[in-house]
Amino acid sequence: MLVLALDTTTRTGSCAIARDGAVLAEAVSDPAAPHARMLPTFLGTLLTSGGVTLADVDAFAVATGPGSFTGLRIGIATMQGLAFASGRPLVGVSTLDALAHAAVGSLGVEAVRPEGDADLAARVVTLVDAWRGEVYCAVYDGTVARGDAAVGRPDVVLAGIDLPATFIGDGVAASAERLRAAFGARATLHDPLAPPLAGTIARLATARLLAGDAPPPGDIRPLYVRRPDVELTREGRPGA
Known about the structure:
Layout: E1 2-7, E2 14-19, E3 22-28, H1 35-49, E4 59-63, H2 69-86, E5 90-93, H3 95-107, E6 123-129, E7 135-141, E8 144-145, E9 150-152, H4 154-157, E10 165-168, H5 176-183, E11 187-189, H6 198-210, H7 229-234
Parallel strand pairs: 1-4, 4-5, 6-10, 10-11
Antiparallel strand pairs: 1-2, 2-3, 6-7, 7-8, 7-9
């Protein structure tokens, strides 16, 4: 099974091609180039480097957020277009879930916490830049989410988090010194802070497809966590 995956939820996006869960090729985009301008060439170059064509792709996968509203919409629309045109399924993967899996994979820890054995799984805190000094945050035991994602100032969303924990995501950079000062050795900053996610997204999508989950392209729903600024402005409210 050949899966083409795309992530445009952060400043530095990525795309990957995977066969049966093994990544054949992964590329990272230029953060200075708008996603809309670089996408066609970006995807075409990736397929060439993987030695495959678009016709060879069995399914598509895309990051569903949270993250940049513009990047999120562009990425989903691009992959929906390819999936609709080819009649292939499109799997959506949360950016925060992908970050947790990336962290767990590099740490080599248990992905799922057995009931009552909290120490057997790593505590992972995913932080994605939400602009205006805020972050999207989700907490995981291994790759199992502990509640819903939140958005707000780092000191607010991180209040009460059980430590020790590994922090990952592009939202960590602005809070790195604060994390070290507040938590010391109990806070481990993942290296790299913001790994490319398309390969992880391709692997997660493959697992879902093999399990029989092959959603049509129209089923994709973006995960905003907070509402887009344009909606808040229309109602005369400041962005939250």
